[in-house]
Amino acid sequence: MVYAVVRAGGRQEKVEVGTIVVLDRLKADVNGTVELSPVLFVDGDTITHDPKALAKITVTAEVIGHERGPKIVIQHFKNKTGYKRRQGFRHDQTRVKITGIK
How confident is the model at residue 9, as a pLDDT? Predict the structure, then answer.
């Protein structure tokens, strides 16, 4: 069993070949490829977390598409003053498919 933990968008994701992951928006074209930096690499019984050894490992992914996340509603309310404020936010995301861990 081969998998890697990659750093993407301020978070860490566990990925294997063929995994589809939703990340923060990446500056890449649709059907283009991106490289993700591994934090941990597991190959059977061997676990690699040394930065020098991880520099030799590449995790490649194909960009499937760009999308927007679910709407987050932000509400402010102050009692007895008539103050109400409502704001919405949708996060930009990129859906990628892991094509190789070498």
Answer: 81
